[in-house]
Amino acid sequence: MGQLSIIDSHAHLDYPQLAEDLPAVLERADKAGVSQVISIGVKLSTVDGPRKIAETHDNVWFSVGVHPHEAGNEPLACDPDAFIAAADHPRCVAIGEAGLDYFYDYAPRERQAASFRVQIGVARQLGLPIIVHARDADDDIAAIIEDKMAKGAFTGVLHCFSSGAELARRAIDVGFYVSFSGILTFKKAEEIREVAAFAPEDRVLVETDAPFLAPVPHRGKTNEPAFTAHTLNTLAEVRGMPADKMAAVTTENTLRLFSRMRGAS
């Protein structure tokens, strides 16, 4: 695996489980063939965390977003100017994660949707992709993406895909990518593997969502970017492709979607 070059397209490196031992975390990632990581923003009020990590490590990038869980707590969750200002940095490669989460419903659904729409608008304006969190909200997620797309093109990714196949199809139809996490390796994730099998080759990414959702054989442990290699191997198996080719495909897809990474590398 050390000869592969894999990008972990979604991790939370500023979370204490990883931040407290970050040099070692990134060293293990490198040894596992994970050459780059995108550290994801979930609140405007804590954007300094992912940004500073990206400024300190030349193989780390970051995003700016308000997670649907935080949409009710963040006072600027619907303020486009606040997102634009926070994203004004050469190592910011995306807006989000944003979206809808009806499983926990930590924020009012109307507020989640309003913030999601604002962040899509900012992503379109800045020419950056939107990173989408979707849980138990497939129809509303698809409807918002389709509605906003009809008003002006943008691109994005359904991250940590754990939704139904219909959402994947609708998102792919309008140009979205689909990113697979350690869930892909779980025994009961057959439907997710079916999506991984039919998604177009040029639209699939891999990620950890670290420190959450560690893949088999590390399930139940703190997840970290090095473990992206296990998800990559499963994706390769599902698609009947050698791991080295799958790594090259997902890396190219990630660089195409998060195009600032390629421009600055």
Which key phrases capture this entry?
single chain, alpha/beta, eight-stranded parallel β-sheet, 11 helices
Indicate the topology.
Layout: E1 6-11, H1 16-19, H2 22-31, E2 34-39, H3 48-56, E3 60-64, H4 80-86, E4 92-101, H5 109-126, E5 130-135, H6 138-150, E6 156-158, H7 165-173, E7 177-180, H8 190-198, E8 204-206, H9 228-239, H10 243-257, H11 259-264
Parallel strand pairs: 1-2, 2-3, 3-4, 4-5, 5-6, 6-7, 7-8
CA distance, first residue to last residue: 23 Å
Strand content: 15-25%
Coarse morphology: globular
According to CATH, the homologous superfamily is: Metal-dependent hydrolases
- Residues in helices, as a percent range: 40-55%
Structural notes for this entry:
By secondary structure, this protein is α/β, with parallel strands linked by helices. Helices cover 42% and strands 16% of the residues. The protein has 11 helices and 8 strands. The protein has an 8-stranded parallel sheet with strand order 1-2-3-4-5-6-7-8. The longest helix has 18 residues, at 109-126. The radius of gyration is 17 Å and the shape is globular.
